[in-house]
Amino acid sequence: MNDRTNGSSVILGEPVHIVESASVVGTKEGRGPLGTYFDLVGEDDLFGAKNWEEAESEMQKNAACLAMKKAKLRPEDITFLFAGDLLGQSIASSFGLSGYQIPMFGVYGACSTCGESLALGTLMVSGGFAKRALCVTSSHFASAEKEFRFPLEYGSQRPLSASWTVTGSGAFILSKETAGVARIAGVTVGRIVDFGIKDSMNMGACMAPAAATTIGNHFREWNRTPKDYDCIITGDLGKTGRDLLLHLLRKEGYDLSDCHMDCGIEMYDLEKQDVHAGGSGCGCCASILSAYILRKLSVWREWNRVLFVPTGALLSKVSFQEGRTIPGIAHAIVLERNC
Q1: Residue 153: its pLDDT value, please?
Q2: For labeling, which of 93, 112, 275, 314 is most exposed (least CB within 10 Å)?
Q3: Which domain holds residue 87?
Q4: Which of 175, 193, 220 is the last residue of a domain?
Q5: Mind listing the pLDDT tens digit for each residue in 309-336?
Q6: Please, which pLDDT band fits residue 89 given cuts at 50, 70 and 90?
Q7: Which of 109, 173, 124, 125 is nearest to 331 (CA)?
Q8: Is 177 exposed, middle or buried (0-12, 13-18, 19+ CB in 10 A)?
């Protein structure tokens, strides 16, 4: 094995495969432009549960179950589970996945959690410490609003810079031994970047500097340019964050205007669905990665290599109320089509 590190990157000598994946989303996401691609669209956003937090747990449980079913695996076939969400103490993951009894690492990277879990799962599998890893991530509009902003009954107005937390979950099974829908060639781990922004209604502006930092570091550490990728995909910057990202990278000499996609923009019809800047939440890029990005690599074979960069705003309801700034982070995953 010839894995090597370069700065914040790990470049794999042998790829780790995404064997299978699954996506679960809510009703609003099911009515969006990618609605037909998701494995499961809920009949309502409660998913048969009694409250929003339990509904998010049900999404994770369903996504994990569907991924294992598609891969013809059982919980005992999984070595380690990496899971996270936006709720305090990651209760969506702990309650939703406890029944599978898979040894679990709970992870939190805000909306970048999908990238963090994939990076950690990849390194564990690549290092020979896990035969298979299951990575699961979720977010829910109603549970996130209640925790970070206001109860839905309050009916507060949202500025145009605000994003809509995606009700969704994605699950991914990683292995070196079985070729799957795509392969992971390496990762670039993000650094915490804080531009002093305090506006929790402008997540795009908080996260864009972190995304620019990670993408720039990736290009330098891998000796690559935007032309080496069919698409560079950020997690949930939305319209405001995307414009800022492109501006920051142009200052570094990188033009992504023709090869950039943001999952927060792709999730909804921004003209017909009232989501303002676009989608956000760690279920946003996770569900789109499973339902759409991996299809472009494996089923439709339109892309050969993409850079997947989930982005996160590292605030809590406590830090926001104390007037703290909102740091950002982003992790990059190199995804390639299997030959």
Answers
A1: 63
A2: 314
A3: 4-175
A4: 175
A5: 999 989 887 787 778 998 999 999 999 9
A6: confident
A7: 109
A8: exposed
Is 186 within 8 Å of 226 (Cβ atoms)?
no
Position 76 scores a pLDDT of 97
- Tokens 């605000």 sit on residue: 162
Residue 199: what pLDDT? 78
Both 34 and 105 in one domain: the answer is yes
Task: Report, as an integer, the average pLDDT of 181-206.
Answer: 90
CA distances from 335 to 50, 92, 153, 169, 249 (A): 38, 27, 41, 19, 21
Report the domain count for the chain: 2
Would you state the structure tokens that stand for residue 46, as one six-digit string? 């409660």
Place of tokens 């339990």: 54
Q: Are residues 99 and 203 in the same domain?
A: no
Judgement on whether residues 226 and 284 belong to the same structural domain of the protein: yes
Could you tell me if 171 and 191 lie in one domain? no
Q: Are residues 171 and 198 in the same domain?
A: no
CATH of the domain at 256: 3.40.47.40
Q: Are residues 143 and 196 in the same domain?
A: no
DSSP 207: H
How far is CA 161 from its chain centroid?
20
Last residue of a domain, one of 175, 197, 230: 175
Going by C-beta distance under 8 Å and a sequence separation of 6 or more, which residues neighbour residue 157? none
What DSSP line would sit under 122-174, residue for residue? HHHHHTTS-SEEEEEEEE-HHHHHHHHS--GGG-----TT--EE--EEEEEEE
Residue 10's nearest CA partner among 167, 153, 136, 188 is 188
* One-letter amino acid of 82: F
81 plus 106 within the same structural domain? yes
